[in-house]
Amino acid sequence: MGRLFLVELEGRCYRCRFCDTPLALADDVISRTFNCRQGRAYLFSNVVNVTVGMKEERVMLSGTHTVEDVFCCRCGQILGWTYVASHDKSQKYKEGKFVLERWRIAEEVTEELSLNGGHHASSDPDNS
Ligand SMILES: [Zn+2]
């Protein structure tokens, strides 16, 4: 423990609004029209650099789910939650997915960083 090993993400990603830690790829967004009690949230298939809290049963708009809260691994703010299990068959697709509240994350729009063509040295085979 002690040192944080943060996963870097390649491409457009969402970051923690408070500490700028990369959390999820824009490509991993399943739904941007997700609503929770605090407002708009995004549903992700995968997130990184988070820690999860205790499992608990929670009654939500879409029924009762077993969820775990999700926290930023660097600054510790709560970001949302993850679905561990759903009691309703129609909600099963959410299992293993992550909900991040929109206002807690920041969308980063990175420009395509074009490698200066021709400048990256192609390593010569070295058989010595
Ligand atoms: Zn953070």
Automatic annotation (TrEMBL):
Q: Which UniProt keywords apply?
A: Metal-binding, Zinc
Pfam families according to UniProt: Yippee-Mis18 (PF03226)
GO MF terms here are: metal ion binding
Q: Which domain of life is it from?
A: Eukaryota
Name the InterPro entries on file. Answer: Yippee, Yippee/Mis18/Cereblon, Yippee_fam
Which family does the record assign? Belongs to the yippee family.
User: Know the name of this protein?
Assistant: Protein yippee-like
| Originating species | Linum tenue
High-level lineage:
Eukaryota, Viridiplantae, Streptophyta, Embryophyta, Tracheophyta
